[in-house]
Amino acid sequence: MSDFQFSPDLLPQHIAVIMDGNGRWAKRQGKPRIYGHRQAVKAVRETIATASRLRIKAITLFAFSSENWKRPEEEVRVLMDLFMTVLTREVKKLHKNNLRLQIIGDKTRFSEGLQKKIAAAEELTQHNTGTVINIAANYGGKWDITEAVKSIANNVAAGQLHPDEISESMISQHLSMSELPDVDLMIRTSGERRISNFMLWQMAYAELYFTDLCWPEFNEQALLEAISWFINRERRFGCTSEQLQALMIKE
Known about the structure:
Layout: E1 14-18, H1 22-28, H2 33-53, E2 58-65, H3 73-96, E3 100-104, H4 112-125, E4 132-139, H5 141-157, H6 168-173, E5 185-188, E6 207-210, H7 220-235, H8 241-247
Parallel strand pairs: 1-2, 1-5, 2-4, 3-4, 5-6
């Protein structure tokens, strides 16, 4: 173990997670895919709690991609019901712990009831100063960039902007989570090795960490190991998960 003293400044500021493998994990248990989605909520809670205790600035969880609508109708319905239930049950806990919740993605396809729940949850937590919890729902990286381009094109059409003034910085300002730092560390569970149209622009320089654990198996130790890997790769330090635990604030 290295004896260096490192500070929270070495931690990733923004972690993105593709929560994959719920169905495969459930199948291994002899259960339906829906069982895996329900069990995944525990992993979400533990990941958020760990990120908060480490004072990570933001964590973005890929809950439901724009491609997920192609799944069986019953599975999509259960996912939407679960989203509504968790949002209702968990938002007060997030608020109590000073965490800010944001739902990113095209929310227009959700039911009116779910859209109202999302708006109320975001409003309740909007002034909190702790870790920002982004839930990517009906989200796609290509959609995000397309919407940014549309917005900028409208400004050009209105004569408010000249095409030569368009820059990378301007495009970034029109994307989801424009007020947050770009992603430093992307984690994907279940052994898949692709980014699946997740925050394409914001992950341009992210370190990509893949684990064979399915999402319902992911826990505090798994997140600490991913962050330790990031620090060692980025900083060439001999960081261990035990040292990270020493940085975690008491709940």
